[in-house]
Amino acid sequence: MKNRGDFYLSQAGRGKTKEAKILLVLLAFIVVFTAVFFVFLSHRYGSAAAFFGKGEIEITEAEDEEDKALPAISGRVNYLIGETDDEETVLHYLYLLQADKDNLSYKVCALRSDMLLGEETVSAIFETGGGAALQKQLMEYFGFDIQYYAVFKKSSFVEFANKLGTMVYSSNEEIRYSAGTEDDKYALHINEGEQKISGTELSNLIRYFSEEQRLSEENELILNALTALFNEENYQKADSLFRLFVKSATTDITVRDFENGRDALLVFGSRFQDITKYSVTAEYEDKALTKAALTNIKGYFS
Questions:
Q1: Residue 232 contacts by C-beta under 8 Å, 6 or more apart in sequence?
Q2: Which DSSP state fits 280?
Q3: Which pTM value belongs to this model?
Q4: What's the mean per-residue pLDDT of the chain?
């Protein structure tokens, strides 16, 4: 201060105060403009999709997949499944399969192709009467219904299984094996440990276990194939897969049966559903089922 009594006013903050006022005015303008613009859009357009135009924006709703509702299903259905050579004269393997919709489970029982039904073997009955005759005689022998049968030729089964996809198989041993007649030869090489196997390897491995009478291992392989290959992805292709199935197998399963079974296919193919697996091992004295084995099979499949 030059003289006592003069008042000194600092000029340092005047510019900053002026800038702050300008910024506040701009902020207020933006807020008011945004509010007016939002009210205008809300009044004119019902949604963001309507504003941007059809096809410009895609709106997806989050789906709680854990709470995905599955249809209620009930009942039990028994199947007789087999494979032959391409001439349909030699039975490679045969097994019973049950889809238990009450307990949500698969039950499998591999049968020997030389198993005796009275005086005839399973193979002999098949050679003279085909799958339908074998289905009828097995129902009479076991005393429970076998609603459907499906018998594949080897090449047809491989094509169908390959359409379902590969599966992971875990072997506790290395298997090198070859057998069969000149027109029906097959070779198998399975490594120890986990590996992906195709339709050809699946067919040959089931046949190997059947011929070696390792029925418990045959059951487990079939059960693992069912739970691995009948999945949600294949359910989405169910129509085309069913057409291929009917083309590939001699069967009494109809389009109506397929349509009536869609709910069961959905449930058994869902990744949210745990399916229990039962291996029912058939035990023999010579070529005939033991009484205990017969009683056990009836208990599971009746």
A1: 269, 270, 271
A2: -
A3: 0.77
A4: 87
Structure tokens at 158: 């491989």
- Pairing status of strand 91-100 against strand 105-111: antiparallel
- Rounded distance between C-alpha atoms, residue 12 and residue 18, angstroms: 12
Residues 6+ apart with CB under 8 A from 213: 112
- 150 has which bridge partners? 81, 251
> Which amino acid, residue 79?
Y
Residue 244, burial from CB neighbour count under 10 angstroms (0-12, 13-18, 19+): middle
Distance of CA 122 to the CA centre of its chain: 31
Share of the chain above pLDDT 90, in %: 74
Confidence of residue 69 (pLDDT cuts 50, 70, 90): confident
What's the CA gap between 122 and 157, in Å, rounded?
20
In the structure, what pLDDT confidence band is assigned to residue 9 with cuts at 50, 70 and 90?
very low
3-state class (DSSP) for residue 275: coil
Angle value at C-alpha 103, between 100 and 109, nearest 5 degrees? 45
CA pair distance 276, 40, nearest whole angstrom = 59
The residues facing 106 across adjacent strands are 99, 277
Assigned token pair, 275: 């399916």
pLDDT band at 88 (very low <50, low <70, confident <90, very high): very high
Rounded to whole angstroms, the Cα distance separating 99 from 4 reads 108
**Maximum Cα–Cα distance across the chain:** 137
State what percent of residues in the chain have pLDDT above 70: 80
Residue in 273, 277, 173, 148 with CA at minimum distance from that of residue 225: 277
Token pair of 225, please?
Answer: 């194939």
